[in-house]
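Per reviewer request, we include the raw input and output of the structure prediction for the construct analysed in the revised manuscript.
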Amino acid sequence: MTDEIIQEVWRVKDQLAKQFNYDLEALAAELRRRQKESGREVVNLEKEATKQNTGR
């Protein structure tokens, strides 16, 4: 049995990868651009990891 949601995620991932000629850096740059353009608040887990590692 195949999960329809997983199939959809793979399909979208494959479309995006093809759109950017399978260039991960180009894809990441586009996703960062979209993120910034959206104006939505983004959670930065790096800050939390630093707190846990330093105890601050």
